Amino acid sequence: MTIATGHAAALQRADIKRPNVFQQMWASRADYLYVLPAIVVMLVVIAYPIYYTVELSFFKTPPGLQLRDKVFVGTENYSTILSSDVFWKVTVNTFIWTIASTLIAFVLGFGAALALHRDFVGRAILRAILIIPWVISAVAASYIWKWIYHSDFGVLGAVMVQLGLADRQPNFIDNVHTVLPSLIVVNIWREFPFAMIMLMAGLQTVPDQLLRAAKVDGASAWQRFWHVTFPHLRGVSTVTILLLAVANFNSFIIPWITTGGGPSNASHIWITHIYELAFGRQRWGVAAAYSVLLFAILMVLGYFYVKALSGNDKQEHGA
Amino acid sequence: MAQVVLKDLVKTYGSVYAAKDVSLTVNDGEFVALVGPSGCGKTTTLNLVAGLIPITSGDIIIGDRVVNDLDPKDRDIAMVFQNYALYPQKTVFQNLAFPLQMRKLPKDEIDRKVREAAKVLDITHLLERKPRELSGGQQQRVALGRALVRDPAVFLMDEPLSNLDAKLRVQMRSEIKRFHQDLNATIIYVTHDQLEAVTMADKMAVMNGGLLQQYDTPAQVFANPVNMFVASFVGSPAMSLVPLEVSSTNGITSLTSAEGWHLPLSAENARKVANARSKKVVLGARHSTIRLHKEKLGDAVPAKVYTVEPTGDITFVQAFLSGAIVNISLPPSVIVEPDEMVWLEFDQDRIHLFDGETEMALRAE
User: Tell me: the pLDDT tens digits for A257-301?
Assistant: First the structure.
């Protein structure tokens, strides 16, 4: 009510004399009052932590000292991180983790969505089963997979031995070469139902008339998919990949619970590493600097992503 | 181009007949409109011809081939859809080229055919645009073009004008008619708008409840509707239908109203009503054949004016006659008021008589 009447009043006044910004703000002061609590909460829980993280990144916090006795060290934390091998290793891990998880989960989800789009007996049941990995707790799933991968008692290794695929129980997560792919498999298993649901929703919006037109035009099932269905799903695919990528950059639960980042940092990704630096080794300053770096990297990626998105958008709607 | 024959075509969904024993022949180069209200089976029939849904029984013959089991792409048809169904991500050129690409034609031939079709439809300047950058009429022309490049045996059109605004619809109506004349194309055209059917088609097939009611030229359908459904569906405003009873005094056959008045019938009309199953007969008359008088005159019967709708050059009057609504058209110089008592005179040569039980038109023989 207030918004509407305030706006109308402002419009009326605009005919006579354009009011300045402060006059406009004062005219709709009630509206600002209404959003004030939300602004205060945002400042307390978002703006202040960001500020404090940036501040902390310029200090050293020796163990045994209270946090308030921190020592100013300038950019030393940053140079420490950038010159450490672990940082680069973890960064490579994070990119492998994110790209592999996102793309494979998307492709699998797409396949599942297409399979479930046609009507067949037991479709509802299969759909419900396929959604399970996404709805169960990530913590529980991680513990289950930890046991599935166990080097002595794991069911996966036992099955492989039984089938003659391996001579003895393979070391999935106690091996620096196989640990990251093994965890990526878990992550994909958990995430593909999300892509499936998004794309199933998208598939339902493909205009039937276009598919029929393509049929009359002589397109085969594959050509109908490629020329009609797939282009129609471009928007929902972009959103799905974006959401998956963000979730994967920020992954924590699966690697932390299953391996804790080991062996020898082979399964550490950014967030698990930061968590270990901060809460495992109390190196708050380094962890804070690390967070700021990560923030910067993600901002750069985000900038290019948004640019790509809006480029698409222009192509879609421009004229 | 080719002729299309539908023989005893049946489509059922469970126990529901979407099309029942539909038989008709579309001659080479003919423009046939399938017309009827929503759910009458006209779109089902078109989709059966296209091969988009399988037939339950019967035969579809295009040219000299029975196409019952062929895929749409092998039937040598092209289809124009209600919402144009243009591929939104493709340019106009790519839209027109698509059916040719699917047939793996060489690139230069595709290019030549697309440009030819574009020239015919005057859309050459739009070839690089995307569908969303076009107006409704332009999109419609592109949809026609995509059908045209195929050089099909028959064009199937599913309500192609119903998404356009009224003014554009009238314009595109004449363009499609011109398209038909210039190409001498065989066209099957589905519409719920009887006016489109009457104005464009060589023949119209009126459908209702999955059944083909009448298949004839628009003039014949208009002049000699076979039953009450066709009579009331074709023509605007609709034919007025007044349920009455047959009576006979002193050798003169009349239609009698429960309101007490009599309408004596001519000798020919008397022979028609003699063929009715019972005394119940429905009198049908089009608005232009009814004369309105302010005083009682000859055989005129009394009615009470309900509404008056001036449209400029014609004033439409609705009046209650024996409990039924009757449409009458008047020159604007005649002024009548709602609730005014008037007398209606029917032209014996131009009234229609229907059996009150079977709803079929009564014939003299």
Answer: 988 887 888 888 989 999 998 888 888 888 999 999 888 888 887
Percent share of chain B, pLDDT over 70: 100
Do A7 and A137 share a domain, yes or no? no
Which domain range does residue B328 map to? 240-355
Check whether residue B263 and residue B347 sit in a common domain: yes
Residue ranges of E strands in chain B: 4-13, 16-26, 31-35, 57-62, 65-66, 77-80, 154-158, 187-191, 203-208, 211-216, 240-249, 252-256, 262-264, 280-285, 290-293, 301-310, 315-321, 324-330, 341-346, 352-355
Based on the domain organization, do B216 and B256 belong to the same domain? no
Do residues B284 and B240 make contact, with C-beta atoms less than 8 angstroms apart?
yes
Tokens of B163: 């998404």
Which residues fall within 8 angstroms of residue A111, CB to CB, at 6 or more apart?
none
Q: ipTM of this model?
A: 0.78
Contact check, Cβ <8 Å, A218/B82: no
B246 forms beta bridges with B255
Task: For residue range A116-172, list pLDDT tens digits in order.
Answer: 988 888 888 998 999 999 999 989 999 999 899 888 888 888 888 888 887 888 888
Same domain, yes or no: B208 and B309:
no
Same domain for A47 and A169, yes or no, is: no
Residues of B in contact with A233 (CB under 8 A): none
State whether B200 and B280 are in the same domain.
Answer: no
- Examine the pLDDT at A12 and tell me if it is beyond 60: no
Which of A216, A234, A317 best probes binding to B when mutated, by most B CB atoms within 10 angstroms? A216
Average pLDDT over residues B277-289: 91
Nearest CA in chain B to A230: B89
Question: Of chain A residues 174-213, which have a CB less than 8 A from chain B?
Answer: 207, 209-210, 212-213
Q: Which residues of A touch B155 (CB under 8 A)?
A: none
How far is CA B155 from its chain centroid?
Answer: 17
Residue of A205, A209, A211, A217 best to disrupt the B interface, most CBs of B under 10 A: A217
Count, residues in chain B: 365
Q: How confident is the model at residue A17 (pLDDT cuts 50, 70, 90)?
A: low
| B191 shares its domain with B67 | yes
Q: Within a domain: residue A236?
A: yes
> In one letter, which amino acid is B44?
T
Whether B311 and B190 share a structural domain: no
Domain holding B350: CATH number?
2.40.50.140
Compute the average pLDDT of residues A54-82.
Answer: 83
Across the range A61-73, mean pLDDT stands at 76
Domain that holds residue A269: 86-286
Among the partner-chain residues B82, B102, B130, the one whose CB lies closest to the CB of A217 is B102
Q: Which of B50, B88, B102 sits opposite A218 (nearest CB)?
A: B102
Q: How many domains does chain A have?
A: 2
Of the CA atoms within 13 Å of residue A67, those in its CB half-sphere come to: 12
Q: Look at B353 and A9; give whichever has higher pLDDT.
A: B353
Confidence at residue A318, expressed as pLDDT on a 0 to 100 scale: 38
Least confident span in A64-68, B4-8, B203-207, B261-265: A64-68
B196 found inside a domain = yes
- Distance from A208 to chain B by nearest Cα, in Å? 9
Contacts of A234 in chain B (CB under 8 A): 89
Facing A218 at nearest CB: one of B73, B81, B133: B73
Residue partners of B333: CB distance under 8 A and separation at least 6: none
Residues of B contacting chain A (CB within 8 angstroms): 50, 52, 71-73, 77-79, 81-83, 85, 87-90, 98-99, 102-103, 130, 132-133, 146, 150
- Cβ atoms of B249 and B235 within 8 Å: the answer is no
Kindly list the residues from chain A whose CB atom is less than 8 angstroms away from the CB atom of residue B102: 217-219, 223
Structural domain includes residue A297: no
Cβ of residue A264 closer than 8 Å to a chain B Cβ: no
